[in-house]
Amino acid sequence: LRLSVHKTEQYGKCYVVKDAGDDPDVTHGCHVESIVEIGAEEDGIVEFRAGIGIGIATQEGLKIQVGEPAINPIPRQMIQNEIKKIIGKRHAIVTISIPNGEELAKKTLNGKLGIIGGLSILGTTGIVRPMSEEALKDSLAYELQMRRKQGNEEILLVPGLAGERMARKYLKEPKYAIQMSNYVGFMLEQAGELGFKKAVLAGAVGKLMKLSAGIMNTHSHVADGRNEIICTHAGLLGASQEVLKELYESKTTEKAIEILKRENLMDIWQEIAKRGAYHAKIRTGYATEIRVILFDKNGTIIGDSLEER
Fold first, then answer.
1. What pLDDT score does 227 carry?
2. Which of 6, 108, 208, 287 is the most exposed place for a label (fewest CB within 10 A)?
3. pLDDT tens for residues 185-224?
C-alpha cells in the first residue's frame, strides 16, 4: 500500500480510508489520519497520542493503561515496527485521528467499556477478512475479558437488549450484562476459561429453551427444535398423544404456551431451564455455576433453574 505523504521539517502526515470488508464496522469509509513527528532523542520510544475522534481509556481491565489513547497493543506494535524501519532509534510521536470518531463511537460499546471521547484502533493482523461473525465474537470476548480483569466473578449473559431489560426487572446482580447475540456456547467457553464463578443466562424462552437440547448457537438458521423440546418435556409430564400432536404443530412458542396453560403443563419450563443449565455448565468445562431464566413475551419468568416447583 503506497500513500501520499504531506511532509514538513517537523512532521509527516497521511491518511487512509478504512475498508471494513464484510465486518459490521462503524469505521467503514472513515478517514484515519496519522501525523508522525520525529524528535532528536535516540531513546527508541514511539509515543502515541489521541487526535480528534480517538478515545481515551478510563477504566482498568482494558489492554491499554488508563489515560492512554485507545490504540490496542497489536496495532501499536505494527506501527512501531514500521516507523523504526525508517528512523531507527530516534524518538517519534504518533498522533492518530478519525475526524468524526467521537460521533461514531456512540454506536459502539466504547462508552460501556470505559473508552471516552472517540473510537478505538483495534486489530490482530492488520488485514480485514470477510468474517463478520468472528469480528462480533471477538468484540464479545473482549468485553467479557475486561469485566473479569476488573475483578468481577459473576456475569449476566442475555441474547439482546430485550432480554437485558427483562432480567433487570428481577435481578440487581450480576452487576454487568453482556448482550451475547446467538453465541451462547462461545461465551460460556470464554466464561469458563476466564474463571467466572457464576453466569446467569436470561432471555426470551423461544431462544434460551434451545440450551436444554444442547444447542449452543441459538440462531434459527443453525438449529431450531423448539417444538421437539416442548413435546419431549410435556410427554414426560404425562401429556396425551392428542396434546402432544397439538403442541408439535404449534407455529409459535406463544401458541404452545397457551396449550400448556390450558393443560396445566407449565411446569415443563422449570425442567427445561434446569436442563439448559446442565448443558451450559458442561460447556464451561464445569468451571462456572449456571442459572437459566426463561421469560415469556410479557417479560414474566416462566422457568428458573434455581427454583423448585
1. 96
2. 6
3. 999 999 999 999 999 999 999 999 999 999 999 988 888 8
Region at 50 (left for phi over 0; alpha for psi -120 to 50; beta for the rest): beta
Q: Tell me 210's DSSP state.
A: G
H/E segment holding residue 71: none
Query: Per residue in 126-141, pLDDT tens?
Result: 655 554 678 788 889 9
Contacts (Cβ under 8 Å, ≥6 apart) of 234:
243, 244, 247, 260, 263, 265, 268
Identify the bridge partners of residue 292 per DSSP, sorted by sequence position.
Answer: 201
- Distance (Å, rounded) from C-alpha 159 to C-alpha 218? 9
Place of cell 524528535: 39
Residues 55-93 pLDDT 10s: 999 987 777 899 999 998 889 999 999 999 989 999 999
Nearest-angstrom CA–CA distance, 104 and 26: 7
Q: Output b/e per residue, 59-93; b: 16+ Cβ within 10 A.
A: eebbbbeeebbbbbeebbeebbeebeeeeeebbbe
